[in-house]
């Protein structure tokens, strides 16, 4: 069994270093600072509206929100808040919830890949006024799904953290609460907020692309690796969990 597990998750600098704790602090600092930069970057893209040089008008405002005397357009503000709130969740995870070691390549890849995806979404939103399939109603539905996905992932991680913090649960699997829905409910939540984000910014045709980015990564990369690791670490307890919760990612489908 130990020989089998060396292939999928060990010595992979672009993944979480499972069973390796501590490590250098600067990769996490790079990750946190990089993720926190996405809010100002997305705001800059929206405020500068680079697509206007091609004759594309500013995205719909959806009305204005008054904050301390400043009138801010509602929809662009929400469009910036979506990646900003997600970056805060990522920063919380890296600083307080992640006990494993983080590598510099992982930190840089995580920052750059998320920034690229979020910037593409922001650019798509700046073209919302000329997107015939985009609508304000779909924007709000997508934003709701996006924030719900972030909340589910955060609550699931907190639930697992609370479970692991109890001495009697040392070395045990957390299989209750959100973790009784799918074996990787945190990834399920990622698909949900990716779906919602794409629906808000690019409309229904872009939504499968946005959600598909997450699905392909989890199905072909992350899930096989972590399933192999958990089978090695937990043994029969993992097999019982697989029988109890057959869905890896999407309840009743996969």
Automatic annotation (TrEMBL):
GO terms for molecular function: Delta14-sterol reductase activity. One of its GO terms (cellular component) is endoplasmic reticulum membrane. Keywords: Lipid biosynthesis, Lipid metabolism, Membrane, Oxidoreductase, Steroid biosynthesis, Steroid metabolism, Sterol biosynthesis, Sterol metabolism, Transmembrane, Transmembrane helix. PANTHER family: DELTA(14)-STEROL REDUCTASE (PTHR21257), DELTA(14)-STEROL REDUCTASE TM7SF2 (PTHR21257:SF52). One of its GO terms (biological process) is ergosterol biosynthetic process. It comes from Lophiostoma macrostomum CBS 122681. This is Delta(14)-sterol reductase. Pfam families: DUF1295 (PF06966). Belongs to the ERG4/ERG24 family. The chain crosses the membrane at residues 106-126, 138-156.
């Amino acid at each position: 069994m130990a020989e089998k597990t060396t292939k999928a998750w060990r010595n992979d600098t672009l993944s979480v270093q499972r069973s390796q704790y501590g490590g250098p602090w600067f990769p996490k600092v790079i990750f946190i600072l990089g993720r926190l930069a996405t809010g100002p970057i997305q705001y800059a893209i929206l405020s500068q509206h680079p697509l206007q040089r091609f004759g594309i008008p500013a995205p719909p405002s959806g009305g204005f929100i008054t904050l301390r005397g400043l009138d801010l357009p509602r929809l662009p503000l929400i469009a910036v808040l979506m990646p900003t709130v997600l970056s805060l969740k990522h920063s919380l995870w890296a600083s307080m919830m992640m006990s494993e070691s983080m590598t510099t390549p992982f930190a840089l890849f995580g920052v750059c890949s998320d920034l690229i995806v979020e910037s593409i979404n922001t650019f798509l939103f700046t073209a919302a006024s000329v997107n015939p399939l985009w609508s304000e109603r779909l924007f709000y539905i997508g934003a709701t799904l996006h924030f719900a996905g972030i909340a589910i992932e955060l609550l699931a991680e907190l639930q697992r953290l609370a479970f692991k913090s109890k001495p009697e649960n040392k070395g045990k699997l957390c299989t209750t609460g959100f973790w009784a829905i799918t074996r990787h409910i945190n990834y399920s939540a990622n698909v949900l907020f990716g779906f919602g984000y794409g629906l808000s910014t690019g409309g229904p045709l872009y939504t499968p692309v946005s959600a598909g980015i997450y699905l392909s990564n989890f199905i072909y990369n992350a899930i096989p690796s972590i399933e192999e690791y958990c089978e090695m670490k937990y043994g029969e307890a993992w097999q019982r969990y697989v029988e109890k919760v057959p869905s890896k990612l999407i309840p009743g489908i996969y």
